[in-house]
Amino acid sequence: MADTFDEDVLNDLVGKVIGDVAGAMSLFMAYLGDQAGVFSALDGAGRVTVDELAAKIGLNPKYLHEWLGSICAAGYAQHHAEDETFSITPEQALVFTREGQPACMQGFFQLIVSQFAGHEQATETFKSGKGRPWGDHPQCLFCGTDRFFRPGYQANLVDNWIPALAGVEAKLQTGAKVADIGCGHGSSTVLMAQAYPNSTIHGIDMHAPSIEEAKMKAAAAGVTNVEFQVGKAQDFAGGGFDFACMFDALHDMGDPVGAARHIRETLAPGGTFMLVEPMAGDSMAENMHPLGQIFYAASCTICTPNSLSQEVGLGLGAQAGEKRLAEVCREAGFTKIRRAAETPTNMVLEVTS
What's the rounded Cα separation, in Å, for the pair 99 and 120? Predict the structure, then answer.
């Protein structure tokens, strides 16, 4: 017996899929434009022809013509049909080329492109049910992740998140010992070192190449009140930390309870653990929106495979929600968990004993 279906519903779904495919291609085109410097060349240039733009950046005008057609159809740049010129608005410049601005999305695009670059391994991991460690991904994932999260940290970490914690800002200003666990390329470590020169910030990450990159970033920034080590969250060296923080990383860990327990054990009396995690409701039904769609997808190919590649392999997932995160922290021995701050993409939990 043949299936029956609603043709209007089918057409709406096909239309949505076409839009999704267009969006996927547009992100790829935006990434190409970033890597080739096209958006930077358009920023502040006014209206230019294909040939003028090609001469300015040394690209083949035939490629640029096709790229501009796609990018303008996506609404990422402006096509002026009356004289066949192209430009970008101030708003488009913020999103596509103003590095470091909270609205700049290029790091996000780079992260997504990394997943397509590693699609064969992602497919095999998904089918096998086995884990896939962080270090097994293409290099552009590490760069894209840092580039995507850095503007949010620049906008919120020192001005909003730390001041929202009880007594922490004063400690950091006077001089404190800080552990930045899962520091990646060290953007958060460097930001805190710059803001609190009397404190010593210890950047810790299990991925050795990321630690090397973090050291270079710290050196380039001219900060000397930093120390870095390769180590796992469950057993990193040191103790007596007045403040510990972790940014969008606990859910990636195989043993988040063990990690949180070790953090508690390394805190000085009266120390605070700031846990920053992706914004999520406590049930899947609460996360049925575009941000939840993105976070679940990233968790499927990045976060959960990394967790399953490690001991315990809890697979907490990027949309664990505050209730589940609080359970992890309490199981680790913490007694007080409070949402101290939030953004549209992150929740900030103050965790103390």
Answer: 31
Parallel, antiparallel, or unpaired for β 200-205 and 177-181? parallel
Per the document, the length of the chain is 353
Cα separation, 255 vs 308, whole angstroms: 9
pLDDT confidence of residue 77: 98
Asked if 179 and 236 count as a contact pair (C-beta separation under 8 A), the reply is yes
The strand pairing partners of 250, in sequence order, are none
**Torsion-angle region of residue 232: left (phi > 0), alpha (psi -120 to 50) or beta?**
beta
Say what the pLDDT of residue 200 is: 98
* pLDDT at residue 71 in the model: 98
pLDDT of residue 1: 56
Indicate the pTM of the whole model.
Answer: 0.93
Amino acid at 75: G
Give the pLDDT score at 223: 98
Q: How many CA atoms lie within 13 A of 272 on its CB side?
A: 22
Residues pairing with 79 in the sheet? 86
Three-state DSSP at 350 gives strand
Cα 141 from Cα 135, distance rounded (Å): 10
| SS3 of residue 255 by DSSP | coil
Low-confidence ranges of the chain (pLDDT < 70): 1-2
Question: Could you give the CA distance from residue 161 to residue 154 in angstroms, rounded to a whole number?
Answer: 11
Structure tokens at 329: 């922290």
Residue 173: enclosing H or E segment and its boundaries?
helix 168-174
Angle between helices 119-128 and 106-117 (to 10 degrees): 70
Alpha-carbon 302 to chain mean position: 11
pLDDT at 334: 98
Spatial contact of 64 and 53, defined as CB atoms under 8 Å apart: yes
